[in-house]
Amino acid sequence: MPVTERRPSSSSPIDLVHLATQTCGDRALERNVLAMLARQIRLAETQLRLLPSRDRAILAHGLKGTARNVGAFALADAAARLEDGPSNELALTKLIDHMTATRKFASELC
Question: What SUPFAM superfamilies does this protein map onto (predicted)?
């Protein structure tokens, strides 16, 4: 079962309750984590379409872990789908859509 189905805040790109738990409620740390996430996503957005399948899978794996740690569960699920099928153009497009939404949301909060 995808993680997003188990979360009450699945309509938001980032589960802010999860993020607050991960950062022990430290707002400054939350902003720093969100800024780092936005930077990582921006870099990955520019690279994903250019990488060969094997490297796409590696990048998707790293993005999946980061996303789960900060509570970006829909992004993590989309990254997992691309990791499982790095040549799947639909999975790539959906991942990039989630990346864009998550990056914008994170940027607005930090």
Answer: Histidine-containing phosphotransfer domain, HPT domain (SSF47226)
Domains and CATH numbers, the chain: 14-109 (1.20.120)
Q: Helices 53-70 and 89-109: crossing angle, nearest 10°? A: 40
Q: How many CA atoms lie within 13 A of 45 on its CB side?
A: 17
Mean pLDDT of the chain: 92
Half-sphere exposure of 99 (CA within 13 A, CB side): 25
CA gap 98, 92 in Å, rounded: 10
Q: What is the pLDDT of residues 49-72, one digit of tens each?
A: 899 999 999 999 999 999 999 999
